[in-house]
Amino acid sequence: MKNTGLRLAVAVAVLYALFVSFMVTKIADESTLPGSSQITVSGDEITTAGEGLNAIIQGAADSSGATVVREIRDLHDASARHFYIATSPGRQSESNWLEDGYPGFSHNVSTFVHPATDLEGVDPRGKYYVIGPNDALDSVSQVFQNLNYSIETSKSVVSTRAVVSTILVGALGSATFVALLLVTLLTGFSVLTRVKNYAILRLHGGTIPVALKRDLRQELPATIRTSLSLTFLSLVALFFYNGWNQLGRYFSLALIVIAVAFVVIGCLYVATLYVSFDSKILEAIKGRLGFRVAVPATYLIRIPSLILAVSLIASTFAAAMSAHQAKQSLDAMAQTGSAARIVFEGHVSPEEMDKLAYASGKWLKDQDNAGNTIMAEPLLEKSDGTEFSEDVLMVNRGYLQRNPVIDSEGNSINDVPENRITVMLPEQATTSMEDVTNSLLANVRGNYSPRINHVQLRDHQTHPLYGISEDGRNGNSSQENAVIVAVGSNSGLISDDDYMASASQGWVLMADAEEALTETPKEFLGTWIAAYIPIGQIAANESADRLEALRLQITSALVALLVLLATAVGLAQIHVRGNSQSILVRFLHGWGFFSTHRWLFKGEAIVLAIAIGWAVVTGIWAAVQSSISNGPFNSADLSIYQWQPIVVLVVAVINLLLLLFMVRRRTNAMIRTHSEETA
Prior knowledge:
Layout: H1 4-31, E1 37-42, H2 53-64, E2 67-73, E3 80-87, H3 92-95, H4 97-100, E4 110-115, E5 126-131, H5 136-145, E6 150-154, H6 160-168, H7 173-192, H8 195-203, H9 208-242, H10 247-277, H11 281-285, H12 291-333, E7 340-344, H13 350-369, E8 373-378, E9 392-395, H14 397-402, E10 405-406, E11 412-413, E12 420-426, H15 433-442, E13 451-457, E14 462-464, E15 478-480, E16 483-487, H16 496-504, E17 508-510, H17 513-519, E18 529-534, H18 535-578, H19 580-588, H20 593-596, H21 598-629, H22 635-672
Parallel strand pairs: 3-4, 9-16, 12-13
Antiparallel strand pairs: 1-5, 1-6, 2-3, 2-5, 7-17, 7-18, 8-9, 8-17, 10-11, 12-16, 14-15
């Protein structure tokens, strides 16, 4: 007799293992160099002991018998990286990268390979990967330590702990829990639907080991065929995706996850089999399972399924809103030209970092005065620590030149004197000039008093934010009716190091990435200022990331809802079979439907109360945590908590309607056909 439930459980487990392997390999490939060790080199001064960096890493590669890779970010594309490689004579596979290209797994990142000779004149401080013998990491590290650099090392850039964390609690955590619930449901029901078969086996003297051997003999060929077929299909898909790059890494992880999944299925199957053999023979012959066992077991799956389905569906709505917001930001960024965000990388000592912060801040203020930077920074709090009732946006000369504002008399304001501050309030603003002025003065260092002008703006003006929200990520594309504070570069409001800090948070952009690259002093570019990334590229990357996250959320939510509804079908069958005699008696005595099944409705009311309580408690806990940390709600979390009550109601209604339909259908079928279950 074919065990469809078990075969489906195996198929789900194999499919999910292949999916997990793909995602983990993809994430690792996008963020690091898999299969390598990592060295981060930092220090006070730049020194090469008379050699160029190219000679240093080539010598390190030759002495260690390894391949040494220097990673440098692309100056304009956040999805691109550059590998400069030096190989020892015995490392042919990495040498081939120079001709054949890097065998990347993911399509989301582009890797360009260069010879180490191109590193001549480059600062040695930065990130390196080492591929080779076990002692190669120490050998290469010693080369940089001999030059008095500080070294941080990692034996493996992709650790087992990181992989397990990603699968269980990271990006794939909810999907893993959904898959586990579905496998548990299918495995459990695969045994419960065969309880009559096991009862007949028991009547003939069969034991649990006998049943296991028989089931294994029947299902092992189908399990092997299913696993091999799905694996073959995944390999075909992977060939068309990336030509089987990093196939060994993908396949080894898939085999490990499949093996773990099979162990889980085996344990679940044996546990359910023990429950089946523990039931009474007479009940089992009639196709029933011990009522006191079956119902709790069903609810052990049903309650987590309901909570998970509610959480994932609410998260899906939040993810959809986030993806829509990112798309709006992307559309807005299409109008910003080549404005670019400054990416800082501090592979320097704390003392040198302070010096560079002041020096680069001063240079950025000079660029500000020339109109080459764009500032769009929110001013969040008054001088007393309370929030403004309206949006307050700090801008600079470069911003106004590209986005002029209109005063109450119709004049266009497209500049601000370099030694002054201009506070501009809309005509119907509730925020006072005094509140804004006091907030600005509270940020001034020393006894210096900046010169502040006041201007009245026309209402209903829209001010672009260049895609940067309060947490530095792509957010709302603009603000309407905001209070505008135009800050001159030499007004005294922002110190040199504070200006650099604003740039590091994304509040200050370079107006033109190409021009900035040529204007940047050599002592900044490479080690301190790592890249100028066009904000249009940042918006495109984030929009793609959020869309991918939305697809994963939708899939997980649908599967979680499917598991929940499947438990409703199973519970209806268990309830009617387990209470067939009492249901028949009550029917013959004219009891109504709700009276006949009242304990079931009480149980469902308790499940609903648990789900509502969970939604309330998680929302309150998040609010308490936010108040303790004195920070605002994460917008995604806030959206989830707003949607959860509605989702609880909708899912509960769908779930209850299906349960009632199946109970009525099973009851009517049992009574109409005079089923043996009523005997």
